[in-house]
Amino acid sequence: MTTTWIVVGHRAGARIIEYNGPGKPLHVVSELQHEASRLKSGALTSDRPGTSFSSGPGPGRHPMGSEDAPHDRAATDFAKEIASTLQSARDEHRVTELVLVAEPRFLGMLRGALDAPTAALVRHTVNKDLAHVAVRDLPSHLESALTF
Q1: 124 closest CA partner among 141, 88, 32
Q2: Are strands 51-53 and 27-33 parallel, antiparallel or unpaired?
Q3: Domain ranges (residues) in the chain
Q4: How distant, in Å, are the alpha carbons of 27, 62, 114, 115, 147 from that of 80?
Q5: Of 73, 6, 87, which Cα lies nearest the Cα of 36?
Q6: Given the DSSP bridges, would you call strands 61-63 and 27-33 parallel, antiparallel or unpaired?
Q7: Which candidate, 134, 72, 139, 143, places its Cα nearest to that of 109?
Q8: What's domain 4-42+68-146's superfamily in CATH?
Q9: Predicted model pTM
């Protein structure tokens, strides 16, 4: 039996929805929230960046930056949390196919967080932020993704 889950996510939340075929109602399996993604950047860092001496001629100091913005790190952490949830469901044989729906950047983070066996369950991806679309309205937005 095929069990398809649709993951509709963004940086601060995700819904996992079960799809049982055309004409059947969608069922929300889980709703995940990531409060850290809603915080302002200053609240996500414990301190201001340090300073360093300039490498060029003359005296001077400049702030050291970080490679990832605090919100990107928070989003990556949330993508890993979602991936862990999906991996557990796969391990427990609760899901056999996945459809991932998110804005392009977060979708990339989510795909990157999936382990190989769970990534193999992905049948379709949708590069749209549909996180605020009501569950009952999702099928009209996902027609092409649900025709496999």
Answers
A1: 141
A2: unpaired
A3: 4-42+68-146
A4: 23, 33, 7, 10, 28
A5: 73
A6: unpaired
A7: 72
A8: eRF1 domain 2 (3.30.420.60)
A9: 0.77
Distance CA 92, CA 8 (A): 21
Chain length of the chain? 148
What's at 55, amino acid-wise? S
Dist CA 124 CA 78 (whole Å): 21
Edge-to-edge strands of the sheet including 27-33? Answer: 27-33, 13-19, 4-10, 97-102, 122-127
DSSP 8-class letter at 97: E
The one-digit pLDDT tens for each residue of the chain (148 residues) are 789 999 999 988 999 999 988 888 999 999 998 665 554 555 545 555 555 555 556 566 556 555 457 667 889 999 999 999 999 999 999 999 999 999 999 999 999 999 999 999 999 999 999 999 999 999 999 988 887 5
Q: How far apart are the first and last CA of the chain?
A: 15
Asked if 13 contacts 26 with a C-beta cutoff of 8 angstroms, the reply is: no
Enter the tokens of residue 81: 């949390």
